[in-house]
Amino acid sequence: MDDYQEEDFIKAKDEAFRFLAYRMRTKKELKDKLISKGYHEDTINSVIKLLESYKYIDDEAFAYAFVRDSIKLKFRGKNKLIYDLRTKGISQEIIDKIINNEDLNEIENIKILINKKIGEKKIVNLDYKEKDKLYKFLIRRGFSYEIIQKVLANNEDFIE
């Protein structure tokens, strides 16, 4: 490496550390950030390789943490999780592994969201427009139509 490349590498590495200081990132997120800052492709790849060797970037660990947080804190469904992981650059292999191994608690999360959304009302008392809004809300949260239907069909289990 000549002096210019060495200096560029050090600047890119420092930029990467600043970016990683806020939260875990995927390889794609870091690469996109460094590209937007104008660093050369070879420099970016060297920085990423270094950070991966020290486990500062680990797409699988990121994906596990992201899925756990999204399920427990944001009550996301399987479809939304898959979409979000893909947009963050997680490989399909890692996505499949995590989605198949994690307990997604989709039914529980739907119940929580319904209770938050409609409060004391009963599902059977909702008119068509309100039910339609509820379905669309849950679908946007990443739940499949089949699971939503299953939960709503057994609504007496969880709504007083």
Descriptive key words:
mainly alpha; 160 residues; elongated; 3 domains; 69% helix; Arc Repressor Mutant, subunit A; single chain
Structure description:
Helix 1 crosses helix 3, helix 2 runs antiparallel to helix 3 and helix 4 crosses helix 6. The protein has 9 helices and no strands. The protein has 3 domains: 51 residues, Winged helix-like DNA-binding domain superfamily/Winged helix DNA-binding domain (Arc Repressor Mutant, subunit A, Orthogonal Bundle); 43 residues, no CATH class; 52 residues, Orthogonal Bundle (Arc Repressor Mutant, subunit A), CATH 1.10.10. The protein is elongated and about 75 Å long. The mean pLDDT is 92. With 160 residues, the protein is an all-alpha fold.
Q: Class of the largest domain in CATH? A: Mainly Alpha
Rounded to the nearest angstrom, the distance between the terminal CA atoms is 69 Å
Number of strands: 0
Q: Identify the overall geometry.
A: elongated
In short, what is this structure?
The chain has 160 residues and is mostly helical.
Topology, pairings included?
Blueprint: H1 3-20, H2 27-36, H3 41-53, H4 59-72, H5 78-87, H6 92-101, H7 106-118, H8 128-140, H9 145-153
Helix pairs in contact: 1-3, 2-3, 4-6
